[in-house]
Amino acid sequence: MALTDFLPELTNSFIFQNFIPFIILFAIFWGLLEAIGRFKAKTNLVISLGFALIAGFTNPWILSYIATLGSYAALILFGMLFLFGVIRWGLGRGRDIYYDTASKEKRLEKLIREHEKWQNKLEAAGTDSEKAEIIKRLKDIEIKMEVIKRG
Question: Which residues of the chain are modeled with pLDDT < 50?
Fold first, then answer.
């Protein structure tokens, strides 16, 4: 028997007709409640579970549209996330290029701010391994500062 013989049975099964749309509705309601931030996690669970049960099993038209709209939503979300990621990477990389090609004063200012940040982390560090790692980073920053001052 080929896999294609089982496909009609799979698409008509409980998993594809009820369970997956229920999980999608549950995730949508959960995400909305988390974004609102009004309730605690357990309350969000109960509310989203109730809404998903009511919406999914009392309105069969919701279940039929979720399957068709799900693929479009996935493509749109992928496109939006990709675009956002490219923009964020570009802006971050642009800042790095600016500081790499900036004057000595700008590069020193950036390294001084970074050195101060790591100094504060060193004061707040608890374990010896954390302190050793921070001290190593501080020494690297100091070396970079010396190279810029010399050159």
Answer: 1
